[in-house]
Design goal:
Blueprint (H helix, E strand, L loop, with lengths): L3 E2 L4 E4 L4 E7 L8 E7 L6 E6 L5 E3 L7 E6 L4 E6 L8 E8 L19 E2 L3 E6 L1
Parallel strand pairs: 2-11
Antiparallel strand pairs: 1-3, 3-8, 4-5, 4-9, 5-6, 7-8, 9-10, 9-11
């Protein structure tokens, strides 16, 4: 059984930085396609970062150059480092895992809620201007 948990979000001012973490049990980082999603108030959930089993990452255009996804297999933790934060980055952030055989560059970025096998409950990020 895979369990995904995002311990905590946070708040920052415009231009600030935050790092989110996601703890996923079950040796997921060597088996699953991992991703970070976010959902702004009144908007649909969107994929912002994807990390495949080999550690290759891709990002949504809206966060490219500002967000970095990484993993620590020993700690079973996925990270999302966010810098240059903007008010439009505000929203609930979710970590997700999927057992897809092929985790292509756009796999997470174009995924729907139903398209990922396991989800965390989400953590709130608030960016003030």
């Amino acid at each position: 059984q895979v369990k995904v948990v995002e311990p905590g979000g946070g708040s920052a001012q415009t231009g600030g930085s935050l790092t989110l973490s996601c703890v996923a049990s079950g040796s997921v980082y060597s088996k699953y396609c991992m991703g970070w999603f976010r959902q702004a108030p009144g908007a649909e959930r969107e994929g912002v970062a994807r990390l495949d089993r080999d550690g290759r990452a891709t990002y949504a255009d809206s966060v490219k150059g500002r967000f970095t996804v990484s993993k620590d297999k020993a700690k079973e933790t996925l990270y999302l480092q966010m810098v240059g934060l903007k008010p439009e980055d505000t929203g609930m952030y979710y970590c997700a895992a999927d057992a897809a055989l092929v985790c292509g560059p756009q796999y997470v970025l174009q995924a729907t809620v139903a398209g990922m096998d396991y989800w965390g409950k989400g953590t709130l990020v608030t960016i003030s201007s």
